[in-house]
């Protein structure tokens, strides 16, 4: 997927939702997840934002598990 920028408030809210829920699942601060999604990888710009239309229709549990799988596939450890 292409590296995309957040285009509207819905995508921004979804990105925050993803970051906060991963942080809660891992028991860490949201700032560490944000860094992992932007500085250690391109998960935010190449997966979350481009996949917004499909991902945001899924359950919280599905989204969290999917993102954890993406992190594992890309070798991202926090």
Please, how many helices?
Answer: 5
Structural class: mainly alpha
* Beginning-to-end CA distance, first to last residue: 23 Å
Give, in order, the helices and strands. HHHHH
Tell me the radius of gyration: 11 Å
Overall pLDDT = 94
| Unreliable sequence segments | none
The total domain count is 1
- Main beta sheet, described? none
* Strand segment tally: 0
Helix content: 55-70%
Beta-strand content bin: under 5%
Shape: globular
Polypeptide structure, described:
The chain is mainly α and 78 residues long. It has one domain (9-73). It is built from five helices and no strands. The protein has helices spanning 9-26, 30-38, 43-48, 52-55, 60-73. Helix 1 (9-26) packs across helix 2 and helix 1 (9-26) crosses helix 5. The relative contact order is 0.19.
Give short descriptive properties of this protein.
78 residues; 65% helix
Could you provide a short overview of the structure?
This protein has 78 residues and is an all-alpha fold. It is built from five helices and no strands. 65% of the residues lie in helices and 0% in strands.
Chain-wise SSE layout:
Blueprint: H1 9-26, H2 30-38, H3 43-48, H4 52-55, H5 60-73
Helix pairs in contact: 1-2, 1-5
